[in-house]
């Protein structure tokens, strides 16, 4: 197979020299068990970077969401509101604590939680005296949700906000980091995220007492006495010192990684904007997105083919592309949950799922690779529209 047909992945890890040095340092110290100086330093560096008072390094972002829900006391008699258009890991922790998810649609401007739908859901819940224990707001594909209206609504009803910023480390809303607008924020360092430790997460907050509690729960809730004693239920959720070393190296290049992903998006947009029926995920004027993934919608009525067909065509060209997240209210696991669409006539997330495609967006993507992706998309749409002509290139 020729070099030009090498597989192009959606969002592969992108590692460099810094990470190697720090990892070898951790290795040389023989301190590869959970915890250690790289964990402490990684927590401090993330907190400083995003402007939170503290941070707890964890084995995953999912663990961070689970601990945040438990810190807020969510349990079996409670509901938790959550963005419906997201990866399943945003909502699963609601089931871990035995609570019931209520799913909130997206708004068209940001694709994130619709303040209009949230307001209706909160009004109804207040009328029934059943306000949620928390609202989990997702910053999808690295774009901030409308935190000002969302926080205002939640403050009115005194409901705490948890931000799922797994895809949004490095993103801002009105100049302030995503993940620092709510009571708790969660980042992920999974292998496909902006920066990675292969697997890992971080819980951030200004509430240092709560973070101390989370730190203890994440280490089996072992008490500070000379023998093994446990009064509370804990988990094995801490990040290893080795992985924290990798994370510290990755954090040093975060700004470059975000810039690279944004440049990739710009190039796609410049090339694909020529094609009728294909539209980019909008960027809200209130924020700077990480463009974790470059996402576009395909209007089948105009393009003559749908998102699935484009993905299949790209797969034949050995290019990995994906659909937009299937909304949680469409998932067999969550189909019974209450769902609040953006308005009576419009479910925004359902349209985005039907039309959306995520193109290869890794920060290590080369221009040549990207040209191949653009050509494959254009060919797919062009073929459908012009009977095989490549006029659009
Ligand atoms: C990746 C991701 C998570 C989960 O993070 P992990 O570190 O893989 O547990 C949660 N929410 C969203 C939106 C994600 O993209």
TrEMBL record:
It comes from Brevibacillus fulvus. It comes from the Bacteria. Keywords: Aminotransferase, Pyridoxal phosphate, Transferase. InterPro entries: DegT/StrS_aminotransferase, PyrdxlP-dep_Trfase, PyrdxlP-dep_Trfase_major, PyrdxlP-dep_Trfase_small. Pfam families: DegT_DnrJ_EryC1. It is an enzyme of class 2 (transferase). Belongs to the DegT/DnrJ/EryC1 family. This is Pyridoxal phosphate-dependent aminotransferase EpsN. GO terms for biological process: polysaccharide biosynthetic process. GO terms for molecular function: pyridoxal phosphate binding; transaminase activity. Its cofactor is pyridoxal 5'-phosphate. The active site is at 193 (proton acceptor).
């Amino acid at each position: 197979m020729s070099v030009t047909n090498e597989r192009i992945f959606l969002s592969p890890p992108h590692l460099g020299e810094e990470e190697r040095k720090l990892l070898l340092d951790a290795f040389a110290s023989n301190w590869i068990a959970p915890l250690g100086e790289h964990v402490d330093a990684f927590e401090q560096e993330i907190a400083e970077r995003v402007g939170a008072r503290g941070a707890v390094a964890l084995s995953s972002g999912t663990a961070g969401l689970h601990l945040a829900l438990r810190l807020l006391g969510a349990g079996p008699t409670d509901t938790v509101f959550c963005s419906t258009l997201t990866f399943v890991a945003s909502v699963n922790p609601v089931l871990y604590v035995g609570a019931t998810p209520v799913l909130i649609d997206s708004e068209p401007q940001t694709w994130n939680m619709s303040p209009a739908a949230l307001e209706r859901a909160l009004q109804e819940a207040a009328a029934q005296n059943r306000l949620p224990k928390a609202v989990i707001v997702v910053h999808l594909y690295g774009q901030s949700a409308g935190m000002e209206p969302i926080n205002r609504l939640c403050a009115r009803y005194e409901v705490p906000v948890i931000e799922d910023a797994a895809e949004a480390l490095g993103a801002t809303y009105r100049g302030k980091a995503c993940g620092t607008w709510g009571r708790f924020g969660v980042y992920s360092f999974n292998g496909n995220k902006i920066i990675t430790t292969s697997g890992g997460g971080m819980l951030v907050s200004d509430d240092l007492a709560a973070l101390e509690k989370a730190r203890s729960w994440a280490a089996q809730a072992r008490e500070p006495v000379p023998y093994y004693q446990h009064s509370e239920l804990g988990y094995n959720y801490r990040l290893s010192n080795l992985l924290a070393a990798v994370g510290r190296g990755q954090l040093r290049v975060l700004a470059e990684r975000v810039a690279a992903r944004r440049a990739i998006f710009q190039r796609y947009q410049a090339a694909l904007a020529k094609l009728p029926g294909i539209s980019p995920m909008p960027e809200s004027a209130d924020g700077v997105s990480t463009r974790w993934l470059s996402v576009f919608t395909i209007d089948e009525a105009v393009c003559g083919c749908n998102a699935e067909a484009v993905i299949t065509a790209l797969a034949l060209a050995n290019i990995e592309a994906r659909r937009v997240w299937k909304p949680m209210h469409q998932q067999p696991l969550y189909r019974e949950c209450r769902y609040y669409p953006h308005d009576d006539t419009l479910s925004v997330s359902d349209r985005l799922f039907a039309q959306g495609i995520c193109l290869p967006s890794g920060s290590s993507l080369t221009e040549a690779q990207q040209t191949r992706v653009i050509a494959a998309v254009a060919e797919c749409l062009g073929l459908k529209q012009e009977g095989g002509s490549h006029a659009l290139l």
